[in-house]
Design a protein that fits this description.
single chain, alpha/beta, 5-stranded mixed β-sheet, 42% helix, binds zinc ion
């Protein structure tokens, strides 16, 4: 699968999240262009602050591959990773991270801060902006819907 196809799968995961009332973020872990794991944000339904799409996908990929080192894998995620997920990206030794929309409020790949500029022992290749408009549109739609719901109450 191409980068675009992998990101499209992450966007499909984000849409599943939105349909569940979750902030629409989706993630895919791939190895040699093949999907190893796919996941979406489940913070609300899982009632757990750690159930971000990236962590869920990393967890599933480790289980699928039988190890914690994902050095041959790449992560595709619709939104710039937060500090928690950026930590997991460093710790799981992911080779490359591609994200869609920037997150100026919590993004740790340059949006708010850049954790990857620090001298950690692992530095994945970080790429941004792939299908950004689609990811951004999903988020905007979701927050508009949420505001309207709140107004009605
Ligand atoms: Zn996160």
């Amino acid at each position: 699968m191409s980068d675009e196809e992998l990101m499209q799968t992450a966007l499909d995961e984000a849409k599943i999240a939105a349909s569940l009332g979750e902030v629409p973020v989706g993630a895919v872990v791939a190895k040699d262009g093949e999907i190893i794991a796919r996941a979406h944000n489940l913070r609300e339904s899982g009632k757990n602050a750690t159930y971000h799409a990236e962590l869920m996908a990393i967890d599933a990929a480790c289980k699928a591959l039988g190890g914690w080192r994902l050095w041959q894998c790449e992560l595709f995620v619709t939104l710039e990773p937060c500090p928690m997920c950026s930590g997991a990206i460093i710790n799981s030794r992911l080779k490359r991270v591609v994200y869609g929309a920037r997150d100026p409020k919590a993004g740790c790949c340059g949006g708010l801060t850049d954790l990857f500029a620090l001298p950690f022992n692992h530095h994945p290749v970080i790429e941004s902006g792939l299908m950004e408009a689609e990811a951004q549109a999903l988020l905007q739609e979701f927050f508009v819907m949420l505001r309207e719901k709140r107004k009605k109450k």
